[in-house]
Amino acid sequence: MSKKNHDSDVAFIKALAELLQENDLTELEVMREYGEDDSLNVRVSRQKHITMAAAAPALAAPAAAPAAAPVAAAPVAVEMPEDPASHPGAVTSPMVGTVYMQAEPGTPAFISVGTQVSEGDTLLIVEAMKTMNHIPAPRAGTVKRIMVDDGAAVEFGAPLIILE
């Protein structure tokens, strides 16, 4: 394989890694055909270990696996950014559902960046199976970052906010 193909393959693999992170996927596999006897097989994966606890942080960070490459090319390791769910102040979703930032449309949001909250204050609502589940603050602190948009779908263990 030529140097030109190798450089474009590295850029392609990096783009796949970004796609994996942006869409919260755990694995992505692609085969790229260059010609009859020239192809690139790429598998990019990561592992997510999420520990649910009211006041304890999730301890594991995602790991990036090296991409599988054809015999003619060397494997390329892809470095993934740190998972927000591993942040010590992360409040994660206890269920799959839809996030709502306010109690009713047209009312003020429960929180915004910089809001001071007390333990037990409602941070947001996750609707699951037509039930509105208020997500309480696990401890007192300041909202540093909101990781979800109003009306967005969330998965179990997905980071919702960063509370410090």
TrEMBL record:
> Mind listing the GO biological process terms from this record?
fatty acid biosynthetic process
What one GO molecular function would you report for this record? acetyl-CoA carboxylase activity
Q: Which Gene3D superfamilies match?
A: 2.40.50.100
Q: What Pfam families does UniProt report for this protein, alphabetically?
A: Biotin_lipoyl
Q: Which CDD domains match?
A: biotinyl_domain (cd06850)
Q: Where is the Lipoyl-binding domain?
A: 88-164
Q: Does the keyword Lipid metabolism apply?
A: yes
Identify the keywords attached in UniProt to this record, alphabetized: Biotin, Fatty acid biosynthesis, Fatty acid metabolism, Lipid biosynthesis, Lipid metabolism
InterPro entries given for it? AcCoA_biotinCC (IPR001249), Biotin_BS (IPR001882), Biotin_Carboxyl_Carrier/Decarb (IPR050709), Biotin_lipoyl (IPR000089), Single_hybrid_motif (IPR011053)
Q: Which GO terms describe its cellular component?
A: acetyl-CoA carboxylase complex
What is its pathway?
Lipid metabolism; fatty acid biosynthesis
Q: Fetch the PANTHER family from UniProt.
A: OXALOACETATE DECARBOXYLASE ALPHA CHAIN
Report the function annotation for this chain.
Answer: This protein is a component of the acetyl coenzyme A carboxylase complex; first, biotin carboxylase catalyzes the carboxylation of the carrier protein and then the transcarboxylase transfers the carboxyl group to form malonyl-CoA.
Name the chain's protein. Answer: Biotin carboxyl carrier protein of acetyl-CoA carboxylase
Whose protein is this, by species? Pelagimonas varians
Q: From which lineage does this chain's organism come?
A: Bacteria, Pseudomonadati, Pseudomonadota, Alphaproteobacteria, Rhodobacterales
